[in-house]
């Protein structure tokens, strides 16, 4: 037997980058294609919850970009923004970074822990726009007209916030299972204030799993907490609110919006499916 060794993600580097304004660093995963870039530069997909999505995204892109005539997917750059932790999430930091302002304070996740704060989305978005994008562009040739943003759950909420506040920051927006309900549907305030700029050309894809509507997954139906889960679903309305948002956005000049339901998926199991769809959306050949 050989000694076990780490299996790094092919073509991917990891960087811990602290905001210029101070604070804890972000762990940024960057996947770049091999070979020469197109004349206009590489398309790029920015992703929240980087620790949780980078491996899936790279695998999905690598497999499909090797056969573009059969997949409609070409090579591109993936920039997944996470945190310097071993697990898939840093719940405390992501609650703040992905929540639209003004935000609120909530009890700690565990006894003795710090309070949970939301409302840091503007600072996080500013970091992406004014620091991270220039950093990426200083290292790789990027096509600024083909940039996409993906987020799931709170990340999907963040993607909508970014669309409503900086609609030219990305061309394609993928909001999977967005937490539209959050803080009394705060994102609705930004939607109502949104005025599409002249010449806007944005593609927006919202999605949810089949079991994010008013039905439980089969394995949940007989669980002791089934009634409580149904009650929570009626409050959160992930599928219904995402459908409504997609229909609303589709009526705005300059936005092509749609909704997709992923069969047999729950809020968490839908993640790899949604990541694959983000790859297909961001790196579509035509």
From TrEMBL:
Residues 1-20 are annotated as: Disordered. PANTHER family: SIDEROPHORE TRIACETYLFUSARININE C ESTERASE (PTHR40841), SIDEROPHORE-DEGRADING ESTERASE (EUROFUNG) (PTHR40841:SF2). The lineage of its organism: Bacteria, Pseudomonadati, Pseudomonadota, Alphaproteobacteria, Hyphomicrobiales. Pfam families: Esterase. Belongs to the esterase D family. It comes from the Bacteria. This is Alpha/beta superfamily hydrolase. It comes from Labrys wisconsinensis. One of its GO terms (molecular function) is hydrolase activity. Keywords: Hydrolase. The keyword Signal does not apply.
């Amino acid at each position: 037997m050989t000694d076990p060794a780490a299996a790094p993600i092919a073509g991917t580097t990891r960087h811990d980058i602290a905001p210029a304004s101070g604070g804890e660093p972000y762990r940024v995963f960057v996947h770049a294609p091999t070979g020469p870039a197109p004349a206009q530069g590489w398309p790029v997909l920015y992703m929240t919850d980087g620790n949780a999505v980078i491996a899936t995204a790279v695998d999905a892109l690598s497999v499909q970009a090797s056969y573009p005539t059969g997949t409609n997917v070409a090579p591109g750059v993936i920039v997944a923004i996470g945190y310097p932790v071993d697990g898939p999430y840093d719940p405390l930091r992501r609650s703040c970074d992905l929540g639209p302002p003004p935000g609120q304070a909530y009890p700690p996740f565990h006894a003795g822990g710090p309070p949970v704060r939301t409302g840091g989305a503007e600072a996080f978005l500013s970091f992406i726009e004014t620091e991270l994008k220039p950093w990426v562009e200083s290292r790789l040739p990027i096509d600024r007209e083909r940039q996409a943003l993906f987020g799931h759950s709170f990340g999907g909420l963040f993607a909508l916030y970014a669309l409503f506040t900086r609609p030219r920051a990305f061309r394609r927006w993928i909001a999977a299972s967005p937490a539209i309900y959050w803080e009394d549907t705060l994102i609705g305030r930004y939607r109502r204030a949104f005025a599409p700029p002249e010449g806007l050309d944005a593609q927006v894809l919202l999605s949810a799993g089949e079991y994010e509507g008013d039905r439980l997954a089969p394995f949940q139906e007989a669980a002791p907490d089934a009634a409580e889960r149904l009650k929570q679903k009626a409050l959160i309305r992930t599928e219904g609110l995402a459908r409504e948002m997609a229909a609303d956005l589709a009526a705005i000049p300059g936005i092509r919006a749609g909704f997709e339901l992923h069969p047999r998926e729950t809020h968490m199991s839908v993640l790899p499916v949604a990541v694959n769809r983000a790859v297909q959306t961001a790196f579509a050949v035509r």
